Amino acid sequence: MQARPNARLSTQAMAFVLAGGRGSRLKELTDTRAKPAVYFGGKTRIIDFALSNALNSGIRKMAIATQYKAHSLIRHMQRGWGFFRAERNEYLDILPASQRVAENKWYLGTADAVTQNIDIVDSYGVKYIIILAGDHVYKMDYEIMLRQHVSSGADVTIGCLTVPRLEARAFGVMDVDGTGRVTAFLEKPADPPSIPGDPEHALASMGIYVFNWSFLRDLLIRDAEDDNSSHDFGNDLIPQIVKNGKAIAHRFSESCVRSGLEEEPYWRDVGTIDAFWQANIDLTDFVPKLDLYDNAWPIWTYAEIVPPAKFIHNENGRRGSAVSSLVSGDCIVSGSEVSNSLLFTGCRTHSFATLEYVVALPQVIVNRHAQLKNCVIDRGVIIPAGLVVGYDPEEDAKWFRREDSGVVLVTQDMLNARAATLG
Protein backbone atom coordinates (compact mmCIF):
# COMPACT_ATOMS: atom_id res chain seq x y z
CA MET A 1 0.00 0.00 0.00
CA GLN A 2 1.51 3.33 -1.09
CA ALA A 3 0.85 5.97 1.58
CA ARG A 4 0.82 9.70 1.03
CA PRO A 5 3.95 11.38 2.43
CA ASN A 6 1.90 13.52 4.82
CA ALA A 7 -0.49 10.76 5.93
CA ARG A 8 -0.86 10.01 9.63
CA LEU A 9 0.95 6.79 10.44
CA SER A 10 -2.22 5.49 12.08
CA THR A 11 -3.85 5.27 8.65
CA GLN A 12 -1.18 2.72 7.71
CA ALA A 13 -1.56 0.73 10.93
CA MET A 14 -3.85 -1.83 12.43
CA ALA A 15 -4.54 -2.64 16.08
CA PHE A 16 -4.46 -6.30 17.06
CA VAL A 17 -6.12 -6.67 20.47
CA LEU A 18 -5.36 -9.75 22.57
CA ALA A 19 -8.62 -10.39 24.43
CA GLY A 20 -8.61 -14.12 25.06
CA GLY A 21 -7.57 -14.24 28.70
CA ARG A 22 -9.80 -15.23 31.58
CA GLY A 23 -8.30 -12.99 34.24
CA SER A 24 -8.54 -15.61 36.97
CA ARG A 25 -7.55 -13.14 39.71
CA LEU A 26 -10.97 -11.53 39.28
CA LYS A 27 -12.39 -14.78 40.63
CA GLU A 28 -16.15 -15.18 40.09
CA LEU A 29 -16.39 -11.98 38.02
CA THR A 30 -14.82 -13.94 35.16
CA ASP A 31 -16.75 -17.18 35.64
CA THR A 32 -19.02 -16.29 32.72
CA ARG A 33 -17.02 -13.64 30.84
CA ALA A 34 -13.46 -12.91 29.74
CA LYS A 35 -11.59 -10.21 31.63
CA PRO A 36 -11.78 -7.69 28.74
CA ALA A 37 -15.58 -8.03 28.84
CA VAL A 38 -15.82 -7.15 32.54
CA TYR A 39 -17.81 -3.97 33.18
CA PHE A 40 -16.05 -0.78 34.22
CA GLY A 41 -16.94 2.83 34.98
CA GLY A 42 -20.73 2.70 34.91
CA LYS A 43 -21.45 1.83 31.28
CA THR A 44 -18.30 0.61 29.56
CA ARG A 45 -16.33 -2.63 29.40
CA ILE A 46 -12.58 -2.85 30.01
CA ILE A 47 -11.82 -3.58 26.34
CA ASP A 48 -13.48 -0.30 25.30
CA PHE A 49 -10.41 1.62 26.47
CA ALA A 50 -7.92 -0.05 24.12
CA LEU A 51 -10.38 0.11 21.22
CA SER A 52 -11.29 3.75 21.93
CA ASN A 53 -7.61 4.67 22.08
CA ALA A 54 -7.11 3.09 18.67
CA LEU A 55 -10.16 4.79 17.17
CA ASN A 56 -9.31 8.19 18.64
CA SER A 57 -5.71 7.78 17.41
CA GLY A 58 -6.98 7.46 13.84
CA ILE A 59 -6.73 3.69 13.46
CA ARG A 60 -9.62 2.26 11.45
CA LYS A 61 -8.46 -1.34 11.11
CA MET A 62 -8.75 -3.55 14.17
CA ALA A 63 -8.82 -7.22 15.06
CA ILE A 64 -9.80 -8.77 18.39
CA ALA A 65 -8.53 -12.25 19.23
CA THR A 66 -10.85 -14.03 21.66
CA GLN A 67 -10.71 -17.41 23.37
CA TYR A 68 -11.98 -17.85 26.94
CA LYS A 69 -15.80 -17.64 27.33
CA ALA A 70 -16.01 -15.08 24.56
CA HIS A 71 -19.77 -14.83 24.05
CA SER A 72 -20.42 -11.66 26.06
CA LEU A 73 -17.32 -10.04 24.58
CA ILE A 74 -18.33 -10.89 21.01
CA ARG A 75 -21.88 -9.71 21.66
CA HIS A 76 -20.51 -6.42 23.00
CA MET A 77 -18.33 -6.00 19.90
CA GLN A 78 -21.30 -6.61 17.63
CA ARG A 79 -23.57 -4.20 19.50
CA GLY A 80 -21.12 -1.46 20.39
CA TRP A 81 -18.46 -1.60 17.70
CA GLY A 82 -20.41 -2.52 14.60
CA PHE A 83 -20.11 0.93 13.00
CA PHE A 84 -17.00 0.20 10.92
CA ARG A 85 -17.71 0.32 7.18
CA ALA A 86 -15.63 -1.67 4.70
CA GLU A 87 -16.49 0.75 1.89
CA ARG A 88 -14.66 3.44 3.90
CA ASN A 89 -11.64 1.15 4.29
CA GLU A 90 -12.56 0.43 7.92
CA TYR A 91 -12.49 -3.07 9.42
CA LEU A 92 -13.09 -4.71 12.76
CA ASP A 93 -12.61 -8.47 12.74
CA ILE A 94 -13.44 -10.73 15.68
CA LEU A 95 -11.04 -13.68 15.64
CA PRO A 96 -12.11 -16.47 18.01
CA ALA A 97 -9.72 -19.38 18.47
CA SER A 98 -11.24 -21.57 15.79
CA GLN A 99 -8.71 -24.31 15.02
CA ARG A 100 -7.81 -22.63 11.74
CA VAL A 101 -4.29 -24.14 11.74
CA ALA A 102 -5.03 -27.60 13.15
CA GLU A 103 -7.98 -29.29 14.77
CA ASN A 104 -6.19 -29.62 18.10
CA LYS A 105 -4.68 -26.13 18.23
CA TRP A 106 -6.30 -23.25 20.05
CA TYR A 107 -4.28 -20.10 20.64
CA LEU A 108 -1.13 -21.39 22.34
CA GLY A 109 0.17 -17.95 23.41
CA THR A 110 -0.12 -14.27 22.63
CA ALA A 111 2.19 -14.50 19.61
CA ASP A 112 0.44 -17.62 18.32
CA ALA A 113 -2.86 -15.71 18.35
CA VAL A 114 -1.38 -13.42 15.69
CA THR A 115 0.41 -16.23 13.85
CA GLN A 116 -2.81 -18.15 13.32
CA ASN A 117 -4.33 -15.07 11.67
CA ILE A 118 -1.43 -13.97 9.45
CA ASP A 119 -3.54 -14.32 6.32
CA ILE A 120 -6.21 -12.05 7.78
CA VAL A 121 -3.68 -9.40 8.79
CA ASP A 122 -2.17 -9.65 5.30
CA SER A 123 -5.57 -8.85 3.83
CA TYR A 124 -5.57 -5.46 5.59
CA GLY A 125 -2.57 -4.28 3.55
CA VAL A 126 -1.05 -2.43 6.51
CA LYS A 127 2.54 -1.35 7.12
CA TYR A 128 2.48 -1.28 10.94
CA ILE A 129 0.79 -3.40 13.57
CA ILE A 130 0.14 -2.44 17.19
CA ILE A 131 -0.27 -5.35 19.59
CA LEU A 132 -2.54 -4.39 22.50
CA ALA A 133 -3.78 -6.04 25.65
CA GLY A 134 -7.55 -5.78 25.96
CA ASP A 135 -7.66 -5.68 29.74
CA HIS A 136 -6.17 -2.37 30.93
CA VAL A 137 -7.74 1.01 31.67
CA TYR A 138 -5.93 4.04 30.25
CA LYS A 139 -6.05 6.75 27.57
CA MET A 140 -3.20 6.85 25.05
CA ASP A 141 -2.51 8.32 21.59
CA TYR A 142 -0.92 5.49 19.62
CA GLU A 143 0.02 7.87 16.78
CA ILE A 144 2.76 9.34 19.00
CA MET A 145 4.17 5.87 19.67
CA LEU A 146 4.04 5.05 15.95
CA ARG A 147 6.05 8.19 15.14
CA GLN A 148 8.76 7.22 17.61
CA HIS A 149 8.86 3.71 16.17
CA VAL A 150 9.42 5.00 12.65
CA SER A 151 11.87 7.77 13.53
CA SER A 152 14.02 5.45 15.68
CA GLY A 153 14.17 2.66 13.11
CA ALA A 154 13.25 0.15 15.80
CA ASP A 155 12.39 -3.49 15.17
CA VAL A 156 9.94 -3.22 18.05
CA THR A 157 8.81 -0.29 20.16
CA ILE A 158 7.61 -1.27 23.63
CA GLY A 159 5.13 0.80 25.65
CA CYS A 160 6.50 1.32 29.16
CA LEU A 161 5.21 2.66 32.46
CA THR A 162 7.43 4.62 34.79
CA VAL A 163 6.93 3.01 38.20
CA PRO A 164 8.73 3.12 41.57
CA ARG A 165 11.66 0.74 41.21
CA LEU A 166 10.68 -1.74 43.90
CA GLU A 167 7.06 -1.90 42.63
CA ALA A 168 8.46 -3.01 39.28
CA ARG A 169 9.06 -6.47 40.76
CA ALA A 170 5.53 -7.37 39.66
CA PHE A 171 6.17 -6.46 36.00
CA GLY A 172 8.33 -7.27 33.04
CA VAL A 173 11.05 -4.62 33.33
CA MET A 174 13.07 -2.90 30.61
CA ASP A 175 16.74 -2.17 31.20
CA VAL A 176 17.54 0.74 28.87
CA ASP A 177 20.56 2.80 27.92
CA GLY A 178 20.66 6.59 27.69
CA THR A 179 19.09 6.57 24.20
CA GLY A 180 16.05 4.52 25.25
CA ARG A 181 17.28 1.33 23.60
CA VAL A 182 16.28 -1.77 25.55
CA THR A 183 19.38 -3.75 26.56
CA ALA A 184 17.61 -6.40 28.65
CA PHE A 185 14.08 -7.58 29.33
CA LEU A 186 13.62 -9.02 32.82
CA GLU A 187 10.44 -10.80 33.93
CA LYS A 188 9.50 -9.84 37.52
CA PRO A 189 13.09 -9.28 38.70
CA ALA A 190 13.89 -9.25 42.43
CA ASP A 191 16.16 -6.23 41.90
CA PRO A 192 14.71 -4.19 39.00
CA PRO A 193 17.15 -2.02 37.03
CA SER A 194 16.51 1.70 37.33
CA ILE A 195 16.08 4.28 34.58
CA PRO A 196 19.38 5.98 33.64
CA GLY A 197 19.55 9.20 35.64
CA ASP A 198 16.54 8.22 37.78
CA PRO A 199 17.57 5.64 40.40
CA GLU A 200 14.14 5.61 42.10
CA HIS A 201 12.13 4.45 39.08
CA ALA A 202 12.05 1.63 36.55
CA LEU A 203 10.38 1.04 33.18
CA ALA A 204 7.69 -1.66 33.26
CA SER A 205 6.19 -3.20 30.14
CA MET A 206 2.58 -2.28 29.33
CA GLY A 207 2.18 -5.20 26.93
CA ILE A 208 1.91 -2.74 24.01
CA TYR A 209 4.18 -3.39 21.03
CA VAL A 210 4.59 -1.65 17.67
CA PHE A 211 6.14 -3.55 14.75
CA ASN A 212 6.54 -3.17 11.03
CA TRP A 213 4.21 -5.92 9.86
CA SER A 214 6.74 -7.40 7.42
CA PHE A 215 9.28 -7.79 10.24
CA LEU A 216 6.80 -9.32 12.69
CA ARG A 217 5.36 -11.62 10.05
CA ASP A 218 8.75 -13.25 9.40
CA LEU A 219 9.44 -13.47 13.14
CA LEU A 220 6.11 -15.19 13.81
CA ILE A 221 6.67 -17.78 11.09
CA ARG A 222 10.09 -18.65 12.53
CA ASP A 223 8.66 -18.77 16.06
CA ALA A 224 5.87 -21.13 14.99
CA GLU A 225 8.51 -23.62 13.81
CA ASP A 226 10.36 -23.53 17.15
CA ASP A 227 9.17 -26.40 19.33
CA ASN A 228 10.96 -24.89 22.35
CA SER A 229 8.99 -21.63 22.17
CA SER A 230 5.91 -20.86 24.25
CA HIS A 231 4.81 -18.60 21.36
CA ASP A 232 4.40 -15.60 23.61
CA PHE A 233 5.47 -12.01 22.99
CA GLY A 234 6.77 -11.34 26.50
CA ASN A 235 8.47 -14.70 27.01
CA ASP A 236 9.88 -15.37 23.56
CA LEU A 237 9.69 -12.72 20.84
CA ILE A 238 10.58 -9.58 22.79
CA PRO A 239 13.65 -11.07 24.55
CA GLN A 240 14.82 -12.39 21.18
CA ILE A 241 14.58 -8.94 19.57
CA VAL A 242 16.28 -7.31 22.55
CA LYS A 243 19.17 -9.73 22.13
CA ASN A 244 19.47 -9.79 18.35
CA GLY A 245 17.71 -6.65 17.08
CA LYS A 246 16.72 -3.15 18.06
CA ALA A 247 14.08 -2.67 20.76
CA ILE A 248 13.15 0.85 21.84
CA ALA A 249 11.22 1.84 24.97
CA HIS A 250 8.33 4.27 24.60
CA ARG A 251 7.35 6.04 27.80
CA PHE A 252 3.63 6.18 28.44
CA SER A 253 3.98 9.71 29.81
CA GLU A 254 4.81 10.92 26.29
CA SER A 255 1.56 9.67 24.74
CA CYS A 256 -0.85 9.53 27.67
CA VAL A 257 -3.99 11.54 26.92
CA ARG A 258 -4.94 13.86 29.76
CA SER A 259 -7.56 16.54 30.16
CA GLY A 260 -6.82 19.55 32.30
CA LEU A 261 -8.02 17.64 35.38
CA GLU A 262 -5.70 14.64 35.31
CA GLU A 263 -2.51 15.40 37.21
CA GLU A 264 -0.49 12.33 36.23
CA PRO A 265 -0.57 9.56 33.62
CA TYR A 266 -3.31 7.06 34.44
CA TRP A 267 -2.96 3.33 33.74
CA ARG A 268 -4.56 0.55 35.73
CA ASP A 269 -4.54 -3.21 35.55
CA VAL A 270 -7.88 -3.92 37.22
CA GLY A 271 -7.05 -7.60 37.39
CA THR A 272 -7.89 -8.25 41.05
CA ILE A 273 -11.07 -7.71 43.04
CA ASP A 274 -9.31 -5.04 45.12
CA ALA A 275 -7.93 -3.21 42.07
CA PHE A 276 -11.27 -3.43 40.24
CA TRP A 277 -13.19 -2.06 43.22
CA GLN A 278 -10.65 0.70 43.88
CA ALA A 279 -10.47 1.91 40.27
CA ASN A 280 -14.26 2.15 40.06
CA ILE A 281 -14.57 3.86 43.44
CA ASP A 282 -11.81 6.30 42.44
CA LEU A 283 -14.14 7.63 39.74
CA THR A 284 -16.40 9.03 42.47
CA ASP A 285 -13.64 11.34 43.78
CA PHE A 286 -14.19 15.10 43.55
CA VAL A 287 -11.37 15.23 40.98
CA PRO A 288 -10.90 11.64 39.78
CA LYS A 289 -7.51 10.43 38.54
CA LEU A 290 -9.21 9.34 35.28
CA ASP A 291 -11.42 11.89 33.51
CA LEU A 292 -14.29 10.08 31.77
CA TYR A 293 -15.91 13.43 30.96
CA ASP A 294 -13.23 14.40 28.41
CA ASN A 295 -15.20 14.84 25.18
CA ALA A 296 -11.98 15.33 23.23
CA TRP A 297 -11.07 11.66 23.87
CA PRO A 298 -14.34 9.77 24.35
CA ILE A 299 -14.52 6.17 25.51
CA TRP A 300 -16.76 4.54 22.94
CA THR A 301 -19.02 1.67 23.95
CA TYR A 302 -22.42 0.10 23.43
CA ALA A 303 -24.79 2.95 24.24
CA GLU A 304 -27.99 1.37 25.48
CA ILE A 305 -31.24 3.27 24.94
CA VAL A 306 -32.49 3.65 28.51
CA PRO A 307 -34.43 6.25 30.48
CA PRO A 308 -32.64 8.67 32.85
CA ALA A 309 -31.81 7.80 36.44
CA LYS A 310 -34.56 8.54 38.95
CA PHE A 311 -34.55 9.42 42.67
CA ILE A 312 -37.77 9.11 44.65
CA HIS A 313 -39.10 9.61 48.22
CA ASN A 314 -38.19 12.57 50.35
CA GLU A 315 -38.92 11.69 53.96
CA ASN A 316 -36.63 11.58 56.96
CA GLY A 317 -34.96 8.17 56.93
CA ARG A 318 -36.45 7.38 53.53
CA ARG A 319 -34.88 9.77 51.06
CA GLY A 320 -33.68 8.70 47.62
CA SER A 321 -30.25 10.29 47.44
CA ALA A 322 -26.77 9.81 45.99
CA VAL A 323 -23.72 11.75 47.12
CA SER A 324 -20.23 11.54 45.60
CA SER A 325 -21.51 8.76 43.38
CA LEU A 326 -21.95 7.82 39.73
CA VAL A 327 -25.48 6.69 38.88
CA SER A 328 -26.07 5.36 35.36
CA GLY A 329 -29.19 5.47 33.22
CA ASP A 330 -32.24 3.35 34.07
CA CYS A 331 -31.34 3.36 37.78
CA ILE A 332 -34.03 4.05 40.36
CA VAL A 333 -32.83 5.09 43.82
CA SER A 334 -36.01 4.69 45.83
CA GLY A 335 -35.89 5.90 49.41
CA SER A 336 -32.31 4.67 49.89
CA GLU A 337 -29.00 6.37 50.60
CA VAL A 338 -26.13 5.94 48.16
CA SER A 339 -22.71 7.40 48.92
CA ASN A 340 -19.28 7.08 47.30
CA SER A 341 -20.68 4.36 45.06
CA LEU A 342 -21.00 3.49 41.38
CA LEU A 343 -24.27 2.09 40.05
CA PHE A 344 -24.21 0.61 36.56
CA THR A 345 -27.16 0.67 34.17
CA GLY A 346 -30.51 -0.59 35.41
CA CYS A 347 -29.89 -0.87 39.14
CA ARG A 348 -32.73 -0.56 41.66
CA THR A 349 -32.28 0.31 45.33
CA HIS A 350 -35.31 0.19 47.62
CA SER A 351 -36.41 2.02 50.73
CA PHE A 352 -34.25 2.21 53.85
CA ALA A 353 -31.29 0.54 52.11
CA THR A 354 -27.81 2.06 52.43
CA LEU A 355 -24.94 1.68 49.95
CA GLU A 356 -21.49 2.98 50.84
CA TYR A 357 -18.43 2.39 48.64
CA VAL A 358 -20.39 -0.09 46.55
CA VAL A 359 -19.74 -1.05 42.92
CA ALA A 360 -23.02 -2.49 41.61
CA LEU A 361 -22.86 -3.99 38.12
CA PRO A 362 -25.87 -3.76 35.76
CA GLN A 363 -29.37 -4.80 36.82
CA VAL A 364 -28.58 -5.24 40.51
CA ILE A 365 -31.61 -5.04 42.80
CA VAL A 366 -31.07 -4.00 46.43
CA ASN A 367 -34.13 -4.71 48.53
CA ARG A 368 -35.36 -2.87 51.62
CA HIS A 369 -33.22 -2.34 54.71
CA ALA A 370 -30.12 -3.90 53.11
CA GLN A 371 -26.85 -2.39 54.33
CA LEU A 372 -23.94 -2.69 51.89
CA LYS A 373 -20.41 -1.35 52.32
CA ASN A 374 -17.08 -1.90 50.54
CA CYS A 375 -18.40 -4.45 48.09
CA VAL A 376 -18.70 -5.44 44.44
CA ILE A 377 -22.10 -6.81 43.39
CA ASP A 378 -22.10 -8.92 40.22
CA ARG A 379 -24.55 -8.31 37.38
CA GLY A 380 -28.18 -9.19 37.98
CA VAL A 381 -27.77 -10.01 41.67
CA ILE A 382 -30.87 -9.62 43.85
CA ILE A 383 -29.84 -8.50 47.34
CA PRO A 384 -32.36 -9.86 49.89
CA ALA A 385 -34.17 -7.50 52.23
CA GLY A 386 -32.18 -6.78 55.35
CA LEU A 387 -28.91 -8.32 54.15
CA VAL A 388 -25.84 -6.77 55.79
CA VAL A 389 -22.50 -6.93 53.91
CA GLY A 390 -19.23 -5.22 54.74
CA TYR A 391 -19.67 -4.76 58.48
CA ASP A 392 -18.84 -8.15 60.01
CA PRO A 393 -15.68 -9.78 58.53
CA GLU A 394 -16.48 -13.25 59.86
CA GLU A 395 -20.04 -13.19 58.57
CA ASP A 396 -18.91 -11.86 55.18
CA ALA A 397 -16.27 -14.56 54.80
CA LYS A 398 -18.81 -17.27 55.68
CA TRP A 399 -20.97 -16.59 52.62
CA PHE A 400 -19.08 -14.37 50.18
CA ARG A 401 -15.58 -13.80 48.81
CA ARG A 402 -13.90 -11.40 51.19
CA GLU A 403 -10.49 -10.01 50.29
CA ASP A 404 -7.88 -9.25 52.96
CA SER A 405 -8.54 -5.54 52.37
CA GLY A 406 -12.15 -6.01 53.47
CA VAL A 407 -13.65 -5.67 49.98
CA VAL A 408 -16.42 -8.24 49.48
CA LEU A 409 -17.56 -9.80 46.19
CA VAL A 410 -21.21 -10.89 46.08
CA THR A 411 -22.65 -13.09 43.32
CA GLN A 412 -26.08 -14.66 42.91
CA ASP A 413 -24.64 -18.17 43.32
CA MET A 414 -23.21 -17.15 46.71
CA LEU A 415 -26.56 -15.75 47.80
CA ASN A 416 -28.37 -18.88 46.60
CA ALA A 417 -25.98 -21.09 48.57
CA ARG A 418 -26.50 -18.91 51.65
CA ALA A 419 -30.27 -19.11 51.27
CA ALA A 420 -30.15 -22.90 50.89
CA THR A 421 -28.04 -23.25 54.01
CA LEU A 422 -30.17 -20.92 56.13
CA GLY A 423 -33.37 -22.44 54.82
Automatic annotation (TrEMBL):
* GO MF annotation terms: ATP binding; glucose-1-phosphate adenylyltransferase activity
Residue numbers binding alpha-D-glucose 1-phosphate: 107, 172, 187-188, 205
Give the Enzyme Commission number. 2.7.7.27
Domain Nucleotidyl transferase: residue ranges = 15-284
GO terms for biological process, alphabetical: glycogen biosynthetic process
Q: Where is the Glucose-1-phosphate adenylyltransferase/Bifunctional protein GlmU-like C-terminal hexapeptide domain?
A: 307-410
Q: Could you confirm whether the keyword tRNA processing appears in this record?
A: no
Its pathway, per UniProt, is:
Glycan biosynthesis; glycogen biosynthesis
Top-rank EC class of the record's enzyme: transferase
For site (Could play a key role in the communication between the regulatory and the substrate sites), what residue positions does UniProt give? 67, 106
> So what does this thing catalyse?
alpha-D-glucose 1-phosphate + ATP + H(+) = ADP-alpha-D-glucose + diphosphate
User: Subunit notes for this chain?
Assistant: Homotetramer.
Q: Which family does it belong to?
A: Belongs to the bacterial/plant glucose-1-phosphate adenylyltransferase family.
What exactly does this protein do? Involved in the biosynthesis of ADP-glucose, a building block required for the elongation reactions to produce glycogen. Catalyzes the reaction between ATP and alpha-D-glucose 1-phosphate (G1P) to produce pyrophosphate and ADP-Glc.
Its protein name is Glucose-1-phosphate adenylyltransferase
Provenance organism: Rhodobacter ferrooxidans
**Upper classification of the organism:** Bacteria, Pseudomonadati, Pseudomonadota, Alphaproteobacteria, Rhodobacterales
What gene is it encoded by? glgC
